[in-house]
Design brief:
Blueprint lengths: L8 H9 L5 H17 L12 H13 L4 H9 L2 H4 L4 H23 L11 H12 L2 H16 L6 H21 L3 H15 L1 H13 L1 H21 L4 E6 L3 H10 L12 E6 L2 H14 L1 E2 L5 E2 L12 E6 L5 E8 H9 L1 H5 L14 H9 L6 H15 L2 E5 L5 E5 L4 H8 L1 H5 L1 E6 L2 E3 L11 E5 L9 H4 L3 H36 L9 H7 L8 H9 L5 H18 L2 H14 L6 E2 L8 E3 L11 E5 L5 E5 L3 H4 L5 E2 L2 E2 L9 E10 L4 H11 L3 E10 L4 E10 L2 H12 L4 E6 L3
Parallel strand pairs: 2-6, 13-15
Antiparallel strand pairs: 1-2, 3-5, 4-5, 5-6, 7-8, 9-10, 9-11, 12-17, 14-15, 14-16, 18-20, 18-21, 19-20
Helix pairs in contact: 1-3, 2-4, 3-4, 3-8, 4-6, 4-8, 6-8, 7-9, 8-9, 8-10, 9-10, 10-11, 11-13, 17-18, 19-22, 22-24, 25-28
The structure holds manganese (II) ion (MN).
Manganese (II) ion binds next to loops.
């Protein structure tokens, strides 16, 4: 029967009966035939043919490949679940689990639609195809299904023709090649070529046709010559000319960049003989008669290709200096060459069930046993095994992009593979249009759609079930960053609390010097200043405790430095600053006004002016005993109401205290805390009652500032009283 013709019932059963003899198997195929015929009744293809013609053609081609009865039945039934509303239960009840498994897988692969060409990745689609098939018979049915659809593709729209042709060329033909199904592969390629690049197809077809009669004549002459030689030596043989398929010529012209007339194996002859020994004998006679071209001899008998192909190849210079490619092999090798794995599985009645197990993993393992020293070949084989069977699953985006993931991967792994942000924002997953928990393990063929929310973020729980390191790392990084952000916020809040407290206590902001904070950090069991702020922010440390510690630290520093040198520095600084006053006398603005050096008033004190002889007015505190009796020379003076805050006042205080160690440094610390500059310290210790009197000179802003300092000095341990000094 010719390609493209409609198969009759008679032709089909003749083909089946040519190799299937058991009543039981024939009954099964008959049942499948009748069932499919009934179920597809009334359905038509675009060609106008009854739909049943399609499934019958598929089953017929499978029978020509000597597929087992289940596979042939599967071919007849491959569209009934999808197209005839037959339930899985009904199907299984009638045809059993095995055939249901085949048809179910074929249906599922058929549903893998490439919706978006931009997302299309041929290599991944091949993998998903093979991984979903599991059983090699499923691939066989699917390949043959596609073959028949390609043969009838002319009835589809040009757009669909191109899409299906591309998929066939990139997904189906390579799988056929991988399984050694040369006939199917070649036909799929030529049909795809026809639809994908029709001009080129016709151009090459024309080139091939052009000198066909000339070439045919050359081949015929050559066949006669070789036949004569082999007959003379009594070697059994079949010999015939062989034409290359158009797509392979096209490939040689484009990939190898050759002109049509440069392609060497256009003239090709194949010799089929009985034994391996015959093959080598024939080769010997041919090489003895014709000059072989160096580097073109290949012994695929000693070293079969990974898809089991065996043959001897040689290229010789034949009649009229024409170049011929000659292939020599046994009948069995020829079967394998044309039908690959299908020839190996060819159904033989009486075989044990285990031999008929069509587990694709086992079959590929079996193929693997044929590996030889050919490094590339074993590399190739390992790649297939690794790619497909190393616990990978293949799932798809709604647009049809294939994503491969390790076994056990979840929608979260999938989401992170799509894009990091998609992963972070995942809030739900639709698996095959059903909302499923995020920890659901995905299966090959699942279509996964991720729901996201911009304001959402990964959860720590995800780490318990995600499978890929990619997802794990990204979740961890996100959580860590989030924690850091939170820490930073708490630290910022803590720092503010600290600053507010310093301000409230009217302490010197210098106390928050980074180095100072750094030195106290270890005392709170934290590493850094930021940790200190954070501790305050989260209230694991009170701001009071920290300030106390800082104050003490300050004190220690003062103890260790020389008080005298500090004072000298302060005095020097003070001499350079403007010591103008902020006092005026009503009605007089030319008088020189100075602060008295006995009671040293500060802004805010009640004051009075004393008119000196020749040195202007001296300002005293109103209660200064030095001027109280001089009423005649006193004059009212006033503080400026718009006081200049930059003006500072020198003054002195007296501290009465019990004498003890570190008294001075405690006093100095308080003064420093309240941002007053100390100019002098004079301590007189009284040995009789163990008391000490300290006269402290300092620079303050105003009366409030001074009184705050005095009040805090009174709180210092051992201090009995603090008073303004008057000389
Ligand atoms: Mn079909």
């Amino acid at each position: 029967m010719k390609k493209g013709e409609i198969v009759t019932e008679q032709q089909f059963f003749d083909q089946v009966k040519s190799y299937i003899k058991s009543e039981e198997s024939l009954a099964l195929i008959r049942k499948a035939y009748d069932y499919a015929h009934e179920k597809h009744e009334g359905q038509f293809r675009r060609s106008g043919d009854p739909y049943f013609t399609h499934v019958l053609s598929v089953a017929y081609i499978l029978a020509t490949l000597k597929a087992d009865p289940q596979t042939v039945s599967g071919g007849l039934l491959h569209d009934v679940i999808e197209d005839c509303d037959v339930s899985d239960e009904e199907f299984t009840a009638i045809f059993g689990e095995e055939i249901h498994g085949l048809v179910d897988a074929v249906t599922k692969i058929g549903n893998l639609k490439i919706k978006d060409q931009a997302e299309y990745q041929a290599a991944n689609h091949r993998k998903i195809f093979i991984a979903m098939a599991k059983d090699v018979r499923v691939i066989l049915i699917k390949l043959v299904d596609r073959l028949h659809n390609m043969r009838t593709l002319k009835f589809q729209s040009p757009e669909k023709q191109k899409r299906i042709a591309r998929e066939t060329l990139e997904v189906y033909a390579p799988i056929a090649h991988r399984l050694g199904l040369a006939e199917i592969k070649n036909e799929l390629e030529d049909l795809s070529f026809f639809y994908l690049d029709n001009d080129k197809y016709h151009e090459i077809a024309h080139l091939v046709e052009n000198k066909k009669s000339e070439r045919d004549k050359q081949v015929k002459t050559m066949i006669e010559e070789i036949s004569a030689i082999l007959e003379e030596h009594h070697i059994p043989f079949r010999i015939f000319g062989r034409s290359k398929h158009l797509y392979s010529i096209y490939n040689k012209m484009t990939v190898k960049n050759k002109r049509f007339d440069e392609i060497l194996d256009l003239l090709a002859i194949r010799i089929i003989t009985k034994t391996e020994l015959n093959c080598y004998e024939i080769l010997g006679y041919i090489h003895a008669t014709y000059k072989p071209i160096q580097g073109r001899f290949k012994d695929y008998i000693a070293m079969p290709k990974v898809n089991l192909y065996q043959s001897l190849h040689t290229t010789i210079i034949g009649i009229d200096g024409k170049i011929f490619e000659v292939q020599i092999r046994t009948e069995e090798m020829d079967q394998i060459a044309e039908r690959g794995i299908a020839a190996h599985w060819a159904y033989k009645e009486g075989q044990s069930k285990s031999r008929q197990q069509k587990d694709i993993v086992k079959e590929l393992e079996w193929l693997k046993a044929f590996e030889d020293e050919d490094r590339d070949a074993s590399h190739y084989m390992n790649d297939i095994m690794n790619d497909i069977f190393n616990a990978n699953i293949y799932v798809m985006t709604p647009k049809g992009r294939v994503i491969d993931l390790p076994n056990g991967s979840t929608p979260i792994d999938f989401a992170y593979r799509i894009h990091t942000e998609v992963g972070h924002q995942t809030i739900g997953a639709l698996i095959n249009d059903v909302l499923m928990p995020l920890n659901t393990p995905l299966k090959t063929g699942d279509v996964v759609s991720i729901r996201t929310n911009k304001n959402s973020g990964p959860s720590e729980d995800w780490l318990k079930f995600v499978k890929t390191n990619n997802a794990k790392n990204k979740i961890r990084a996100f959580l860590q960053k989030k924690e850091e952000q939170e820490r930073a916020e708490f630290a910022k809040a803590g720092e503010q609390i600290l600053k507010d407290e310093i301000k409230r206590r009217n302490l010197d902001p210098e106390i928050l010097d980074h180095k100072k904070l750094e030195t106290v950090a270890p005392q709170f069991q934290v590493q850094s200043v930021n940790d200190l702020f954070y501790s305050i922010g989260v209230k694991s440390l009170t701001v009071q405790a920290l300030i106390e510690k800082l104050v003490k630290q300050e004190k220690k520093e003062l103890d260790s430095s020389s008080l005298q040198s500090v004072l000298e520095k302060n005095q020097a600084k003070r001499r350079h600053t403007n010591t103008k006053t902020d006092v005026y006398v009503k009605g007089i603005d030319t008088m020189k006004i100075q602060m008295s050096s006995c009671c040293k008033p500060v802004y805010g004190d009640e004051i009075v002016g004393y008119v000196t002889r020749g040195s202007g007015i001296k300002v005293h505190r109103r209660d200064c005993p030095n001027v109280r009796s001089e009423k005649a020379r006193l004059i009212d003076v006033y503080w400026n109401e718009d006081h200049d805050n930059n003006i500072k006042y020198d003054t002195e205080i007296t501290i009465y205290s019990k004498d003890r160690a570190f008294l001075v440094s405690d006093i100095v610390t308080v003064i420093a805390q309240y941002r007053a500059t100390m100019l002098s310290v004079n301590i007189v210790a009284n040995r009789d009652d163990l008391t000490a009197t300290a006269l402290i000179g300092l620079v303050v802003d105003n009366k409030d500032h001074l009184e705050t300092i005095m009040a805090n000095l009174r709180k210092v341990d051992s201090v009995m009283d603090v008073a303004r000094a008057i000389k």
